[in-house]
Design a protein that fits this description.
The complex is a heterodimer. Chain A is 3% helix and 38% strand. In chain A, β11 and β12 form a beta hairpin. Chain A has a single domain, classed as Methanol Dehydrogenase, Chain A (8 Propeller). The two termini of chain A are 34 Å apart. In chain A, strands 1-32-33-34-35 form a 5-stranded mixed beta sheet, with no helix packed on it. Chain A has a 4-stranded antiparallel beta sheet with strand order 2-38-37-36, with no helix packed on it. A 4-stranded antiparallel beta sheet of chain A has the order 3-4-5-6, with no helix packed on it. Chain A is built from 2 helices and 38 strands. Chain A is mostly beta strands. Among the domains of chain B are: 85 residues, Cytochrome Bc1 Complex, Chain D, domain 2 (Orthogonal Bundle); 47 residues, SH3 type barrels (Roll), CATH 2.30.30.100. Helices cover 28% and strands 12% of the residues of chain B. In chain B, a hairpin with a 3-residue loop joins β4 and β5. In chain B, α3 crosses α4 and α5 crosses α8. The chains are: A mainly beta, B alpha+beta.
């Protein structure tokens, strides 16, 4: 063997050669279970790891392998990507990092210089990166999309998408599809006009934009009173999913603006709180399904939908913030079932299509009215998971009702625009939370694991028969996916506002969770 | 965002006596229009804890009195709203995880609003504070569970500052009907300060029953202060049972137990120590 070949083989053995992440690899992510290549782990949104080395039989011995401290204040919402021995993640204030997945030692760090007048609604947060080719991609709080060299963290391109001073920002992890980087705007609390954008991964040039509120003359514009569509909200702030068979994106949208006051925007307010089926190449709308019409409770539909194939049924399921678990035919958008997965008081009836219909007495009033779920929803942006092993859908549910009170307010560009206030209704009934296992075939709950308070952690399922989740008190907990029994937990010391993921390096499986301001990685003892 | 806070003791008391010296330029709360705009900011950002009209809620103190514990001048009020109050559940602007951080202009509007709802007259204690103190540490038996200025028990909330942050009506109600309001839940970012006063009952593996209040709890562990003021640290899976009830361990101090006059004296004492 000549010297060159010797060096090359050493590099391969040590895993130093970073192959580029092609669209083909993203399509076939199941073939490389050691990696975690997209926000939800696969294009279907399943957040399921096929790894089974850590399993129900040995999870009790799980130990911390390393901790990476970001030193960043604020909620740490990232799901890192795992690519060939490197973890890529983000932290508050648009930090990004690449870490040696063996040791947690940083390879590079990036932090964006943000203007002082950004308008994030709910913390200076970011949920993660997309990777394609040799680049990683981030949406920023000043409404830019940027590409970083995956080897160095250097900025490759940086495009401004919209005027952030009007209340726009990005907090989601982008999704890479073909050669496009897909993002959706945040800003539903500012009276923005929401959109979903696609950018060319090489140049940063915008290839298409879909406005989630139709313009004048477009279908659906008549679901808005007067000019209210111009400030109609409908942000798209959570990462959608992609179906390669139909070349469609399924992307959920958020609340109409103002979020808790319907006066002034009479009508259904399309396409707020909807699931949109968009052609991935063009952004053209194929179908939509609106979960909550004319929303007055801030029930964004921004929960990751999950594609489920059952026999010849091609389904998409979502545990919605409004408290119902929906199953749709993803070819047609037709509703197949809607079942409550916790306490719901806003709807007692369904329309001819089976869609829950709001009770008249659920609208906010000046003096206030108790409605369940509360403004933060039965669940929120934290990811659910679907295990192909158990056939169950797992979601972090919040049992919390609120008093909704209107607070009329004029629109002013760039200013918070809610139109209401909400208060806890917990003096008689305390809040709590639970991970719930739902059978998608009938919407029934198989089991629940209770939290002492509502959690902001998402859920991961693995082929090891496990479900991992975090909680507001700082635990990462492993549950038996079949029974919900707690098998292991670790107190991280910081509240969890993120969803777990799993990866492997050198044949050893690890589970990662962002908690407090640190990223924890757990594995079996050597 | 749920988080809890001591129903009484936690102090966010923004407030001041004072002729409010206005500062120059934009560094001032502004007039009636600003107060009107600030009312909306208040509902969105503050009423969650401080109640509609700043009259207090289950979590945060009422803010309508002119004397405020943590801020007297407008500039101090601005600072407290901007930066929060370390050691309390009062978060810095924009960090409570719900809602949107306010601009400086909006904070000034909020200051104007808070000034506009202040009741200028100071609270004049109607009772005899010296007798109230005797009751607190003596026959009233309050100090068995409550602290004032470092003396007393820790089963119930520390009452040193309560009269600075709660109305006389709210204190009266809490003495007469302690189970009426057991607030819990505040911003999760400040959860480490959370405490609620539900009654917790554990039965240990050897059958011993312990009643008290929880100091801190997660899915797997619980800390309990028992009725003798002892702290117990438990892992839940080692217990035979663990239950909580929305009934306060504090007995209702009805008029037969504590006369109206004695209650006035107690409140006078609490007002005297809060100032």
């Amino acid at each position: 063997m000549n010297r060159f070949l010797a060096i090359l083989s050493i590099c391969f053995l040590a895993g130093y050669v970073q192959a580029q992440v092609t669209f083909t690899r993203l399509l076939n992510s199941a073939k490389e279970p050691q990696n975690w290549l997209t926000y939800s782990g696969d294009y279907g949104g399943r957040r399921f790891s096929p790894l089974d080395q850590i399993n129900t039989g040995n999870v009790h011995s799980l130990v911390v392998k390393w901790v990476y401290q970001t030193a960043a204040a604020g909620k740490f919402e990232t799901t890192p990507l795992a690519v060939d021995g490197v973890l890529y993640g983000t932290a508050p204030d648009n930090r990004a990092f690449a870490l040696d997945a063996h040791t947690g030692r940083p390879i590079w760090l990036y932090q964006r210089q943000l203007p002082s007048d950004i308008r994030p609604c709910c913390g200076r947060v970011n949920r993660g990166l997309a990777i394609l080719g040799h680049k990683v991609f981030m949406g920023t709080l000043d409404a830019h999309v940027i590409a970083l060299d995956a080897k160095t963290g250097n900025v490759t391109w940086d495009v401004s998408t919209v005027d952030y001073t009007q209340g726009y920002s990005f907090t989601l992890a982008p999704l890479a599809v073909k050669n496009l980087i897909i993002v959706g705007a945040s800003g539903g609390e500012y009276g923005i006009r929401g959109f979903i954008d696609a950018y060319d991964a090489d140049s940063g040039q915008r290839e298409w934009r879909f406005y989630t509120v139709p313009g004048r003359g477009e279908p659906g514009n008549d679901t808005w009173e007067g000019d209210s569509w111009q400030i109609g909200g409908a942000p798209a702030w959570i990462t959608g999913v992609y179906d390669p068979v139909s070349n469609q994106l399924f992307w959920p949208t958020g609340n109409p603006s103002p979020s808790n006051r319907g006066a002034g925007r009479a009508g259904d307010n399309l396409y707020s709180n909807s699931l949109l089926a968009l052609n991935a190449d063009t952004g053209k709308l194929n179908w939509y399904f609106q979960f909550t019409k004319h929303d007055e409770h801030d029930w964004d539909a921004t929960q990751v939908p999950i594609m489920i194939d059952s026999g010849d049924q091609r389904l998409i399921a979502q545990a919605n913030r409004n408290g119902f678990f929906y199953v749709l035919d993803r070819t047609t958008g037709k509703l197949l079932s809607a079942t409550p997965y916790g306490k719901v008081t806003w709807s007692d009836s369904k329309d001819a299509e089976g869609r829950p219909v709001a009770n008249k007495e659920s609208s906010p009033t000046l003096e206030g009215r108790v409605v369940c779920p509360g403004a933060l929803g039965k669940t929120n942006w934290m990811s659910p998971t679907f295990s192909s092993q158990t056939g169950l859908f797992y979601v972090s549910a919040r049992e919390q009702c609120d008093i909704f009170s209107t607070a009329p307010q004029p629109y002013e560009a760039g200013h918070a625009y809610y139109g209401s206030a909400y208060f806890p209704a917990d003096e008689t009934e305390p809040y709590w939370g639970a991970v719930r296992a739902i059978d998608p075939s009938n919407g029934q709950m198989k089991w629940e694991f209770r939290h002492v308070s509502p959690s902001w952690s998402g859920v991961l399922s693995t082929a090891g028969g496990l479900v991992f989740t975090g909680d507001a008190e700082g635990n990462l907990t492993a549950l038996d996916a079949a029974s919900g029994k707690a098998l292991w937990h670790f107190q991280t010391g910081g509240a969890v506002y993120a969803s777990p993921m799993a990866f492997a390096v050198d044949g050893r499986e690890f589970v990662a969770i962002a908690a407090g301001s640190s990223l924890y990685v757990f594995g079996l003892p050597k | 965002m749920s988080k809890r806070m001591l129903p009484f003791a936690l102090a966010l008391a923004l407030m001041s006596t004072a002729a409010h010296a206005r500062q120059a330029g934009s560094q001032s709360p502004g007039g009636p229009n600003a107060a009107k705009a600030g009312e909306f900011e208040f509902r969105i950002n503050c009423a969650f804890c401080h109640g509609l009209g700043a009259r207090g809620g289950g979590r945060g103190p009422e803010l309508t009195r002119a004397r405020k514990r943590h801020a007297s001048s407008d500039a101090e009020l601005f600072r407290v709203i901007s930066n929060g109050i370390p050691g309390t559940a009062m978060p810095a602007n924009g960090t409570n995880g719900q809602g949107v951080g306010m601009t400086e202009e909006e904070i000034w509007q909020l200051v104007a609003y808070i000034r506009s709802v202040e009741v200028r007259a100071p609270v004049v204690p109607a009772g005899n504070a010296a007798h109230g103190k005797e009751l607190f540490f003596g026959d009233g038996n309050c100090s068995a569970c409550h602290m004032v200025q470092g003396k007393g028990g820790r089963l119930g909330p520390d009452l040193t500052g309560v009269a600075g942050t709660r109305t006389v009506e709210a204190i009266t109600d809490s003495v007469r009907n302690p189970s009426g309001r057991l607030a819990q839940g505040l911003m999760e970012a400040t959860k480490e300060f959370a405490q609620e006063y539900e009654t917790a009952t554990v039965v240990t593996s050897d059958g011993t029953e312990i009643k008290g209040t929880t100091l801190n709890e997660d899915d797997f562990s619980v800390q309990i202060i028992d009725q003798s003021d002892r702290l117990h640290l438990f892992e839940k899976d080692k217990l035979r049972s663990f239950t909580k009830s929305r009934h306060s361990l504090m007995p209702p101090y009805k008029a037969s137990l504590l006369s109206d006059a004695d209650l006035q004296d107690l409140i006078a004492y609490l007002i005297s120590v809060a100032q």
